[in-house]
Amino acid sequence: MMARQQFRVFPERFGFFPYIWLIYLVFPVMNFAGYSGYKLMAGYALLLLFLVTYRQLYWAEDRMYTAWLGLQLLIIVVLTVVYSPYNMYMGFFSSNFVGWYTDMRRFRRALAAFTAVLAGLGLFYLPQVYGPDILFMLPFALMMLVTPFGIRSINRRRVLEKELDQANEQIKEMIKREERMRIARDLHDTMGHTLSLITLKSQLVEKLVVKNPERAQAEAREIQRTSRAALRQVRELVSEMRAVSVAEELAEAAEMLRSAEIALEVEGDAALPGVSDLTQSILSLCIKEGITNIVKHSRADQCRISIVMTPGEVQITLEDNGVGLGQDRGAEEAERQGGNGMKGMAERLSLIDGSLSLASGAGGGTRLTVVTPRVVKDGKDGEIA
Questions:
Q1: pLDDT in tens, 130-172
Q2: 91-98 and 131-211 are packed helices; what angle lies between their axes, rounded to 10 degrees?
Q3: Residue among 331, 385, 316 nearest 353 (CA)
Q4: Which H or E run includes 288?
Q5: Boundaries of every domain in the chain
Q6: Span 246-381: which CATH code?
Q7: Does the model's pTM come out above 0.70?
Q8: Residue 16 has what DSSP assignment?
Q9: Transmembrane region positions (predicted)?
Q10: Is 163 exposed, middle or buried (0-12, 13-18, 19+ CB in 10 A)?
């Protein structure tokens, strides 16, 4: 069974903006004063239909959008001619929607129709309105004619920003795809011959182990040398890959926190001199995860990142002044957050013998501490970081 779609009065992306405009409908209601009977009921019916057109214009597209806008203009004309000339101010609703046309030709047509409606209403009431009232209404009429240009400019900018974001995402995906292909080619070219050689020599050792033990031992030692050479080749390949430094990640974190209106304070040397690219990449991923959790869950307005280096280790602490662990979010939420993000960070840190801890901050909030050794050893083969 298909789930029922939730009914919404206005699209969620507009927030409270559509509801604010509804306040201005109190003025046409006031203009009904002095009317009674069927004429008053008809006025309220037209106002209700106007509300329907107002809602539908937030959802409609293409031809239906034009039809609803045309109906809205017709209602404004009837309310202005039959009830009060001051109902012409309802044209501010329509001037906003005229500016939503992205196609220039449709925009010009809608603007021409809107201008014709305003001009017709003005000429109709010109003999009945006194000079001071004309001077009062004229600036508002001009504002209604100028508003579509401003609304269209704002909407056009939003569309361009959205298209730019999409283009940037596509570029990032293309870069990732190209990097994967490059890594695959390098692995094939670098490791293919070496692994084939190891396979052949291991088969030879298997045959010689009974017939010629000394030759088998020599071939086994050659396999060891070849495998170590292959390990060095892999490390060289990894070192050539693009690594994200802690300083770069902190710059991105500052931008994310700024967007979330969270103040950032950084203490310590973000350059981490002497720390390997692998360690910095893993630390950067931990910082990214920690900052993401702060933005999503902490409800904080301040974040402090402390970087401490000793001869043997690197310690990075992220602390916020938010709701803290288990407060307001509940134990389940704290466990869920720790179960996903913390587990991923712990798995990455285990590759370099690092560790992490999550605790409540000194003044409330949450404190995440990540510790990694500055030098990671791999037995006989020396440093791997």
A1: 556 666 677 888 898 999 998 888 888 888 888 888 887 787 7
A2: 40
A3: 385
A4: helix 277-293
A5: 12-129, 246-381
A6: 3.30.565.10
A7: no
A8: T
A9: 16-34, 41-59, 65-86, 107-128, 134-151
A10: exposed
